[in-house]
Amino acid sequence: MRRVNVYVNQPSCIELRVRETVRIDRLHPTAADEYVAAQHGALLAPGVNQLQLEAGIYHFRTLDNAQLHVISGGVRVDSMSARGKDSWPTRSPNTDGATAAAVRAAVEPRGYGPCGHIPALSVEYEADVAP
Length: 131
Prior knowledge:
8% of the residues lie in helices and 47% in strands. It is mainly β. It has one domain. Strands 1, 2, 3, 4, 5, 6 and 7 form a seven-stranded mixed β-sheet that branches. About 8% of the residues have low confidence.
C-alpha cells in the first residue's frame, strides 16, 4: 500500500490517475494539536480524476500504481509505502515539527496491504508550476 500526503498552499488543480476506487481525506486540525481525517468529496473512480483543492493537507492510499499531475497552484507531495521501507519526511514546508508529527499520527503508516508489491507513484508538474 502506498500512502500519500498532499500539501496544498494555495487553491490548486490536480489530476489523479488511479486503477482502483480511491478516497481522498482532508486532514483538519483539532484543538489538541492533532489532526482528524474527513472524506473530501466523492470516492474517485478508476481512471483520470481532476480535483480542485483548497489550501490544506490531503491524504489518500492506493494499492496500485498511481500518477498525480499538478495542473496549477502550489502542491507538494510526500509518500511512503506501508512496508516501512520509506520513512516519513521529517518536515513539510507547510508544517512545523509538532504539526508534522500530528499528521503522521492521523494517517498511521502501519496496516494492511498486499505482500510483495509496493505501488509506484509518479508526480508531474506543469512547466509553470513549481513544487
